[in-house]
Each structure stands twice: as structure tokens, then as C-alpha cells.
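seq:
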Amino acid sequence: MTISKYFKISALLVVIGAAGCTKLNETYKSTVPADQAAAALGPAGVGLLLQSAYNDLPGIFVGQDQLFSLEENSTDESLVPTRGGDWDDNGVWRVIHNHTWNADHGQVLSVYNGLNKLNFDATNVLAFAPNKEQAAEARFLRALSLYYILDLYNQFPFRNPGDTLLNAPKVYKGPAAIQFIIDELEALLPDLGAANGSTAANPAAAKLLLMKCYLNRGAFNNRAAPTFDDADMQKVITLGQQIMASNYSYESKYFHNFNNVNGSSKELVFAYPATENSSTNNPGMQARWMMTFHYNEYTAQAPNAGWNGFSTTSDFYKTFGAAGVMNYTPNDTILDTRLGGRRLSDSLTTAMSGIKPGFLVGQQYDAAGNPLKDRKGAPLAFDPVIQPTMIETGSNLEVTGIRVAKYVPDFSTTYGGANYSSNVGNWLVIMRYPNAVLMLAEAMMRQASPNNAGALALVNTLRTARGAAPLASMTLADPTNVDTYGTLLGERGRELYFESERRTDLIRFGVYLTTWQYKPTDDPKYLVYPIPNQALAVNPNLTQNPGY
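struct:
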């Protein structure tokens, strides 16, 4: 946790030992002044503290029950049907999708704690005299955590490195909260290493996060009726143009952004790395395909390859077809490579699994092309129709729901068989270049003098890179249907699905409270999550969000 005037040695012994620093002649629970602890750490020890903050990222962004669930399962992009006795978990998944959660929900607490761990671990770095670049990286990580806490919970706790731990952290809320994050990012930006790659805080990552802050400021201040100040839109446009002038470009194959060599992607702005066959700080991206695959998929090469859970709605799937018209046969004439599945024509399919990334609909096959069966011996053919209650009880309960494999499965022969799921090579993607382009297009449409033609040109350049036909025209969103085809909101969904963007987008576009499949009603209180009751009990400066 953070340091004030003194630092507890029990939290520092391992770091100092690993750094090979001067031994501190103190007992286990004694304290020393923070300046002495900083001197003992030295630059290498500060680097270890900074790496510890970076290592918080997978815990927040990877797990299917973490930030991904709150940002995706609460939208039209993702849901987790109960299949017999599987994936019920006392209804925790269903209440996220149909917006009936409360302040005791385990995922609401877990995500809150995870984001605040990053908040305080990043602040901790600042207590030990980091150099200018280390301080900028720590402040970026802290700003990233604060952005998500504000987005999800409408307020965030904050402690300066010199604050006493005897007092509860200060809490920022309202306009002051987003302004604080913006000020932090603007201040740290000049000190970030220009040569930093995507696995460290870098200028483009800070600019992309600033774009998010300026674009969402009006929504964070009034989620029920978002506004868009022209000065904020000009900031988004300027930052987006700067990122576009950098060394980013679209990959010729969309799913190269998510396969086991995605570290070389020209679209990565900020990511957490993985080394294939190494357990050192490996983010464990296998969860992103195991959560959706059926139990029997690819069992000859990878036993227990799937958990048979996560699906998408058929309405969202249909947004890849012109005017939302699409059938569900393998012969669909769809050129948009982001759809993936059996329509994908590139070479990303692994020899072991036979899987192709993207949306999996209909009959599934093994690597040799043989049709697979479910555990009852029936064809393993994913059916788009899910019961309105999201509780499956029929004979086909194992195969309901379109599955989504955004990350390309890494079933390497190097660690095949029973250990196939360990230490995969896929990097965790946190920020991608196309998001900056799409935010730029949005700001061009929302500015005081809209440039709709310029925005459409940007979107069509992206669509061309994805093999999709250009749009003749484009609006921001359909106020009555989140899954309308010719909208910028729709394009963001097609490009960024399953990347933890959808909930924030739907709120900003003013359609989060509309109904969609398996969410028949809503309440404005669900525009934000509640502050967990456990957090309220320990910090009196927090206030529960209205309605909870």
C-alpha cells in the first residue's frame, strides 16, 4: 500500500533483497523514515516496485469475472447462460446482463479492489524518489486505474504519497474527478519515454487515455444525458491526429492483433506481454477462449479445452451483415474479416486445434475437418437462440449461444496435451490504434461544426482494411436500437467487441438504458455500479451511488 511518513519494512524486505540493496538493520515490523527506505531501494528497487504495479494489469483485465464482465456482460455483446448446473453461480452472471445487480455482488467488489490495488501500488512508487520517467509511468498507471474506477463507480479514492495512513483516503467525484485525471495525464505526458514500446506507459498510450477522458467527460458528469463540449472535442481531434501521425497502421490480418505472436502487431498501443512456455508474469490469456469453447472442442489435442460459458447475442452478431440481415449457415457471403469463424480465409488456424477465431456458429469441426459432437452425442452445432431467461434446460442446452473467440487459441505442440492451457504466448491487449481513429471520427461528428464526411472517410478506410464494404453514410447511433448497422456505434462494436469498451460506449451514445436481447427493462441507477458495501464500511468519505 502507499507510504506516508514511515514505511513498514515487512512490505519491503522482499523487494530490497531482490534488488541487492543495503541491508536494513530493522526488525520485522519496525519502521524507518521513507527517505531512508527510498535510499535503500535505489533505482533498481524502484523499478521493481514499478513492475509490481504493471503486474496488477492482468488481474484486472484478463479474468472473465473481472473488468471484462462489468464492461461486456452488461451489454448486448456478451452474456453467460446457465446450462443445467453450469454457470449458474447463484445468478451472478445473469444479473449483470439484465441489470439487476446490487452492492453485494462479488464481481462488483472484486473489480473495485483490483483497480484500487493498481491505484495504490502505482502511488507507492512515487514514495521512493523515482526518476522522472519512472514517476511518469507510475502516474500513468494510476490515472488508468482512476479512469476505470470513475467510469464504473462514479467516484474514486485517492491518497498522495505523503498522506498519513491513519486517515481514510480523499474521494474525488463529479467534474473534479475527471478533471484530476486529465490534469495528471497532461502533466506526465512530457516525461514519458518516447522510445517506450507498447508494454510500458508511452506517449501514445497517454494520449489515447486522454482522448477517452475528453470524449467521456460529459458522460461521466451526466450519464443520463451526456453532453459534448466543443473544446473537449477539439482536444480529442488534436490527440487523435497526433496518434495517426505516429508509427501505427492497420494489420493486414485482423486476428494477428490477438494471436500468440501479437506482440509484433502494428496496432498495439498498450499491452501486457507474454512469453510462450514461460510462467514469468504470463497474463494467461487462455481464459479468453476457454470461457466460450464447448467442453468437447478439440479434445484430441487439448483435453478439457472449454468451459462452455460465454456467448454473444444474435442481434449483435447480425450487425456484421448489411442492414442487420444475416443467416447462420457456413455459406454466408460476408467479407468483414472481423467476423472470423468459418468465414475466415487467412492462415491463423492452428494445426492442432482446427479452430478459427471470431464468432462460432453452427456445426463445429476438429483439425481434420470431422464434425464434433456434444457430450450427449448430438452434433456440436452452436444455436443462436438462447432462452429469454438465460436459463437453459432443453436437450440442446450445451450448444445454445453464438461463441466468441477474440483471442486466437494457442495450442502449441511445445506444451500440448493436458498442459495446453499454461503459459500461452498471446499478449493482453489493453489499447489499440483503431480505437484512437474511431474516437477521432466521433469527435469530428460531435464538434460544433460537424465533419461527417471526414469521419465517414476514416471509418471506411478502417472497413477497407478489414475487408468490409464501405458505408454510404453513417450516423452516430440509433436511439432505439443499439445494434443498428450504419452507425458509428455499430462500427465501434464490430472493431472493438470483447475488448471491454462496449458499456462505456453505450452510455456515451445515450443508449445504455434501451432494451436489448435478454434485458427487457432497465433503471437509470444501473448507469453506474454501486460502491461495494465493504468499501463503504472502511472509508466514510465514499458515498453510495443513488438507488442502491
